[in-house]
Amino acid sequence: MGLIKKYFMPNDYVKSVFEIDIEKLAKAGFKGIITDLDNTLVGWDVKSPTIEVKEWFKKANDLGITITIVSNNNEERVSSFSKDLNVDFIFKARKPMGKAFKKAIKHMQIQPKETIVIGDQMLTDVFGGNRNGLYTIMVVPVKRTDGFITKFNRIIERRLLNYFKNKGYIKWEEN
């Protein structure tokens, strides 16, 4: 189970992005965040950033942390959401493949060790970040509803989460 832990267990787990201590991460030397969009920042059906999301992005920016939104969703969805935040984005990222993660890191002009990946899915965000040597933070999905492929991923994810929880590796509480 060593490889499963290495690739699928997040470095940290929080209920939402708003519980992430950005100041602590900045002090620890992190300079960039690659964040998922749907069910990480807002529900998949929320078109624009909320006031809380805008404030969270501003706080990160004020602390010298650059954020890039990396999503498997289409250009129209990711572009219109990112435009309101004035941040770079990558759409149709094909996570967990590494190309989008590497592209975001290069564009932010930082090193992998200075990069955090935030997302709500173990099989895309956490796996993709871990296999590229990045610090991963998993959040509880904002909404309980998902698309077909994500529903399948959640079945596997629940089994992995239960395994990590039973081993005492993480404390996981569903909403």
TrEMBL record:
One of its GO terms (molecular function) is phosphatidylglycerophosphatase activity. It holds the Pfam family Hydrolase. GO terms for cellular component: cytoplasm. Transmembrane segments: none annotated. PANTHER family: 4-NITROPHENYLPHOSPHATASE-RELATED, PHOSPHATIDYLGLYCEROPHOSPHATASE GEP4, MITOCHONDRIAL. This is YqeG family HAD IIIA-type phosphatase.
